[in-house]
Write a structure and sequence with these properties.
This protein has 464 residues and is mainly alpha-helical. Helices cover 68% and strands 2% of the residues. α8 packs antiparallel against α18, α9 packs antiparallel against α20 and α12 packs antiparallel against α13.
């Protein structure tokens, strides 16, 4: 860990002064909010009959639903994604023009393949590991429902990547819309999301609500472009527009949850429909409120990040961000498995939401963090160490489109239907595992890390 800190310190010292450190900080804090939120909300316990049951804080404590307004931070990811994708896409176009490359289509294919590879390559190890574990657990005769519960819990995080990659693929179009139409390119999604919810809840139209994965998160992604262009305020001045955005988003959120029919919880909870899977207008309003709040705090945050120690910690976290995100629930499942099978249920006698359960949460979160450390040690070093697209060739347009689609469908199915099969001999759904691998192959790269010195150097510079 000391070695990782020293490397992060070196990168922190190399940071160019024009870099917006608040972008990196929001990404790091958001990841930790997701991790702590998952560790806090979910829990296994042993009842008086000695049975292992799956507990859920949200099912036993209604007041905990309000906590999801702070822990459901996926909109912040898409805000940061819009900012970062906008910067990256503009830089790619400028570089192509400087090199007299006539086709922006080719630039897009190369850019998209690189963005996809950056996100999907760290996903292969966790996906393949759990596929192997599911096969092994099936062959040794463990109950299929327990195998499904374990794989489902460990691989929940990949749903976000499917949606994020899809939204990222729209970057050239959405960025062009922002440049041409400005705020209208964001505002258009408000009535579309409202119409989608109306068709879903008032008219009972099936499946249409899943289109909100695009409408809601594309809208927040547009706000990242607005942020990059200084529309929420620049410099160290007071962010009145950002505060107004926060106030409007919060007012709408309260009115449609507390005084409307949308649930207060921003994640799936018993007793109502989910505001997040798929997103609803309530999550849209939460996203707007969160955007306003984090951008209103930006001037103070950038001052804080001028401290080298704070900025080094931010760089360190961003250097392992995908590893932490993808493996934190695997660490949770590992701890629960050891406590149940090896220690006979030791420490699992507290029902979620009880006083004893709350008293032990700091200890358990510390245990989960310790369990996560080996995964960080093994996989974080490779997070930015991937090789270039094979052969350096531009991927054909149709092939690239099918590659991205295959990856998104595969990752979505991993979280939606899980890789565990209730009746197959192997115990897994091979098509779910195969789709992301096929998509990666179509885009010209695979699950094997092939770092080069030039790639490492380029990645290290970007990390700072």
């Amino acid at each position: 860990m000391l070695t990782m800190w020293s490397k992060a310190r070196e990168l922190a010292d190399m940071t160019p002064p024009e870099r917006n450190r608040w972008v990196d900080f929001l990404r790091a804090v958001s990841i930790m909010a997701v991790v702590i939120g998952h560790w806090l909300m979910a829990g296994l316990y042993v009842n008086e009959a000695g049975e292992l049951l799956r507990g859920d804080l949200l099912s036993v404590a209604d007041w905990a639903h309000w906590l999801t307004w702070g822990f459901q931070v996926m909109p912040v990811f898409f805000l940061v994604g819009g900012y970062s994708n906008g910067v990256s896409w503009v830089a790619s176009v400028r570089k192509a023009r400087a090199q007299d490359r006539p086709s922006q289509t080719g630039v897009y294919r190369d850019w998209l393949a690189a963005r996809v590879q950056r996100l999907i390559t760290p996903t292969f190890p966790v996906l393949l590991l759990w596929a192997a574990l599911a096969v092994i657990m099936t062959q040794v005769g463990l109950p299929r429902d327990q195998i499904r519960m374990a794989t489902e819990a460990a691989l929940i995080p990949v749903w976000f990547l499917a949606v994020y990659l899809l939204v990222t693929a729209f970057t050239p179009l959405s960025h062009a819309a922002w440049k041409r139409f400005g705020w209208l390119s964001f505002a258009i999604y408000v009535p579309i999301a409202m119409l989608t919810d109306w068709l879903t809840f008032s008219q009972g139209v099936p499946w249409v609500n899943f289109t909100n994965f695009l409408w809601v998160f594309l809208a927040i992604h547009q706000l990242g472009f607005a942020w990059r262009d200084g529309k929420f305020g620049e410099g160290e001045g007071t962010r009145w527009f950002a505060w107004a955005t926060f106030a409007v988003g919060l007012a709408i959120l309260v009115s449609i949850t507390v005084y409307g029919f949308y649930p207060v919880s921003m994640v799936s909870a018993p007793g109502g429909f989910s505001n997040s899977l798929p997103p609803t207008l309530a999550l849209f309003a939460l996203g707007v409120a969160q955007v306003g709040l984090v951008l209103a705090l930006e001037p103070a945050g950038r001052k804080m990040l001028s401290n080298l120690g704070v900025w080094t910690a931010t760089v360190l976290m961003n250097g392992m961000i995908m590893t932490v995100y993808l493996w934190h629930l695997t660490a949770f499942v590992l701890v629960m498995t050891v406590c149940w099978l090896v220690l006979g249920g030791a420490g699992l006698d507290s029902v979620p939401g009880s006083g004893a359960w709350w008293m032990t949460r700091p200890m358990w979160i510390a245990i989960y963090m310790v369990a996560l450390m080996p995964f960080i040690a093994i996989f974080a070093r490779h997070e930015r160490s991937f090789g270039p697209i094979r052969g350096g060739r531009t991927v054909p347009k149709v092939r690239a489109a099918f590659g991205v689609l295959a990856i998104c469908v595969g990752l979505g199915a991993t979280a939606g239907v899980t890789i565990a099969s209730p009746d197959s001999l192997s115990g897994i759904r091979w098509w779910v595992i195969a789709l992301p691998l096929v998509g990666a192959a179509l885009l010209g790269f695979g699950p094997v890390y092939r770092p080069s010195e030039a790639t490492r150097e380029h990645a290290n510079q970007n990390a700072a």
